[in-house]
Amino acid sequence: MAELRIAVDADQDGPGGRLQPLGEAGRPIGPVERVRDLAAAMAAREAAERPRWVWAATDEIYPRLLPRLAESRLGRCHDVKLVEPLLLAHEDRYGDPRSLGAAWARLNGLPVPDDLRLGLAEAETDAHAQDALFAPDRSRLGPGVDPMTALVAVHAEQLRRLAALPEKVGPGLRLLCAAESAGGLVAAEMGYDGLPWSTAVHDALLAELLGARPTAAQAASGARPPKLAALAVELQEALGGRQINPDSPGQVLRAFAEQGVSLPSTRNYLLRQVDHPAAPLLLRYKELSRIYAAHAWAWRDAWVRSGRFRPEYVVGGVVSGRWASRGGGALQIPRILRGAVVADPGWRLVVADAGQLEPRVLAALSGDPGLIRAGAAGDLYAGLAADAFGGDRARAKLGLLGAMYGQTSGEVGPLLAVLRRRFPQAMGLVEAAARTGESGGVVQSRLGRVCPPPSASWQDVTAAPGEEGEDRAGSAARSRGRFTRNFVIQASAADWALALIAALRRRLAEIPAAGEGGRPRLVFFQHDEIVVHSPAPLAEAVAAAVTASAEEARRLVFGDTPVHFPMDTHIVERYADAKDGDRADADTELDEEY
User: Fold this and answer.
1) Cα(85)–Cα(186) distance, rounded to whole angstroms?
2) Of 181-185, 244-248, 318-322, 468-472, which gets the smallest average pLDDT?
3) pTM of structure
4) Contact 400, 412 (CB under 8 A)
5) Which of 62, 81, 131, 244 has the lowest CB atom count within 10 Å?
6) d(CA 377, CA 360)
7) Helices vs. strands in the chain: H and E counts, helices first
8) What distance in Å separates the CA atoms of residue 495 and residue 174, rounded to the nearest whole number?
């Protein structure tokens, strides 16, 4: 029997809307149903039938429903706007407009309206999540087009395209489409529920770090908080008393050069290697300046409401499948401010992260027996060190990160030679991905997310470089090779993380409520880390659900692999209490180089 699906079209104004049950291949069953209270009607159908909801875009409809659904949540959905780009990439149309209006136009041979979307420039680095803006889909359908008619037709066409995929690709991409759509539900719910945030603790932390809050007039004139201003003066004195702007890398580099210290940039890992009293001062200044700019008082005024940090997440906002956010810096909360994330009285935070996720993904993708064995005991880098690097964990990690990110210069070169000899299958996988990228090809994640094709400018540079352009062409090819080398790993890690949160969301809904105390809610997700806000009596059950969900994600994404993805799980009252440990800090610092 075909899964019941119900297409949803919400009224632009007011609480009503329309529902259309769908059967085999997305064909309509019966007439369209007009409802006065869309949220109530959907809650009733959810409880009775548990359908898969079909709509143009989760981020346009679900946030409007959540306040009226109260404790009820919808189980599953099919998000046309999230599914469309996954299919387009397999049809050699990566980056084409993905809205309902665009898909409808393609289906009917009409001019395709443009979307606001992530550009290909991000694909060349894939370094950090960038904000993405999306326009409402209904406005792009064109005059006279019924949104429900377009939705039903485009959804049926998406199902047809998924069914027509080759057997090698189809099952994985169908799973990815379901997981991506589930991610849309999670993102909306996290924005609605919010991450618990104590303004009192935040104030105390800011006062300790920065001093008193500048007045509006002082802030407008560019004045720094007192402790940051004092640190800027101390830094200037350490650099010979020269008047410099610590926020200007060019001025800082010149000042260091005058002190006999030559630096190519002011990146943190380089500054940590400098034996000069100004170096630790600059590191501290950069840290505090970043907090002041991104997560201080003005940020809190904009993003923290009623004791909750409520960001807007963008599912798949980065080409690898990682999430982004529309402002608020949700995915970059500084470690030093995590003390402000405090559970409500009688509640706990269940914080879990998948340590060493990308190396474990490489082991699962490649099936390399040596790398699998290295991770079996727990700390993969320590196992790698014992097997191939004489017990030197730092060198083992540096070498493996170099292999995954394409770093070959300096100390990394000899380490890669060791890895090639000892772990040929793992190294062969990343190097084959790099060669594909260097030749202008595309690679895929485990579930079939396709990387962007090379840009037109890249093709121009590498097409016929001649003698004068040979270096430039070679550099461009190597840069793309580094991108595709890491894409297969990072995007497959994103596949696993999506499956994890989809499974965890389902399991949390199955945990019996603790009386009138409420239900556990997933309130934060960042690449390989999750935070659940839970009534204290349910915290242990939540921790067990996290472990079970990670195992389910492993089976779904990687099949019969001996590689495990252990979750480091803590039940705490403050987020900061789950993040201590010298090794975690050391790993974070080493990762900055990449």
Assistant:
1) 19
2) 468-472
3) 0.90
4) no
5) 131
6) 12
7) 23, 14
8) 12
